[in-house]
Amino acid sequence: MQRRQLIQLGATGLGVSIAGVPLELLAQDKDAKKGGTLNVLVQPEPPGLMMGLVQNGPTQLISGNIYEGLLRYDDKLNPQPQLASSWTVSPDGKTYTFKLKSGVKWHDGKPFTSADAVFSVDVFLRKTHARLRGSLEALESVKATDPLTLEFKLKYPFGPFLGLFENGTMPMVPRHIYEGTDFATNPANATPIGTGPYKFKEWVKGSYILLEANAAYHVPNLPLIEKVYYHVIPDAAARAAAFESGKIDIAPGGSVEYFDVQRLAKLPGVAVTTKGWEFFSPHSWLWINHRKAPMNNVKFRQALMHAIDREAMAKIAWYGFAKPATGPFNSAIKYASADVPKYPKDMAKAKALLAESGYKGETIRLLPLPYGESWQRQAEMVKQALTQIGIKLELVATDVAGWNQRLNEWDYDLAFTYLYQYGDPALGVARNYTSTNIAKGSPFNNVEGYVNSRVDALFAAGARATDPASRQKAYLEVQKLLVEEVPVAWLHEITFPTLYRAKVKNPVSSGIGLNDSIARASLA
Fold first, then answer.
1. pLDDT for residue 12 is more than 70
2. Residue 149 phi, psi dihedral angles, 5° rounding
3. N or C: which end of the chain has fewer CB within 10 A?
4. Residue 153 pairs with which residues in a beta bridge?
5. Whole-prediction pTM
């Protein structure tokens, strides 16, 4: 049996022991040179680097080098060993046993053990990590059965459980530093200590963050690059100029405007890739506030889908780095299906549906996402399309804080967003459509206020089933149902292009790309 088959069984099968294959044997160039300095953009400057406390994108881009999870994921979302060397799943799907890698040390020299893992999951992250806390509702207990063995017991089978262990979802934090302290104010937050391939060295606010290679890293011969600078450059034009001048080696997805990506990608010695986002699978849509008429009428929502030209938006606003979404599941995640109702651009049909929806000519407020030019162009295109079918539309400009506040308080009619789907519908999709996830205070749950008991039941069935066939059946039905009812207006599967100098070898080596670590990259 090939190794990939073994790993896939680990993801879905029961009662199968997975022999850990050292990651040092995977995705490495044996002839890669060691040493050198890498310069990377980070945009915006992160609010902190302690990944157990802060989970936003800029934080993980840097701290993914410092903190590690028990598992990594390849671009097919198959779990691979990281701090765990192997794992087993009991036949009833309720007990997961992890064997931890021996000889792993924290950056301060203390040993990493299963006691650290229990503390991380059951104490620290339960308190600090809202997204993980929700996924751990299925967890009955976690305990260390010996210093290198960890046992999770679930209340009921939870199909996507093995998808929870990447460094952003379940980062391991040092028990000896945080136990018995106020996690939020612990002084160690300013000098993060993990087990990862790079150590925190220096942070000059507004300028750069410097990481240095961890000479005692538990994977032999890694990391390959000695120093990594993450540069903070607030102005978009200045970021593009810094890459063009050669000061910057890597411009991660989103750090350079899309119209600059195509130009910069044509420079000599420059490459571009959209790999490394498979696990996150960014998916965009329009929130539709069901609490108000006419948004509470399905014909109004279907009219939106027929009026919006998603193909044109992908080409014009996203410069080709997006493709139209067909429903709630990004095509890169498990159990996604194209066998759902379709909404091709059809202005005549959109007008007819609008006439049947009870729309009376009132002004509809659209809240753009204040994340740059592509989002602004997209907002203008949506306004043009909806105006053409007879909807009075007002664009309501906000900053990021204002966007968050309005979505938190449900103070909107239509609003742009994009969310990560984390490889599995139970982890990254259900939260946006189940009625139990309607709560003020978050812009990332069921913000639209959609309620359908059948949808709730199907997502619950998909999450609790352990065999792929049962999960597929539940998720196919829920996709069809959701696309018919249009709780939100799906727009695009976004691909974030990463620009890099061709001298940088192997910058992306997992399904979470640069957010994993840069340990396997080298400089020619």
1. no
2. -130, 135
3. N
4. 95, 141
5. 0.82
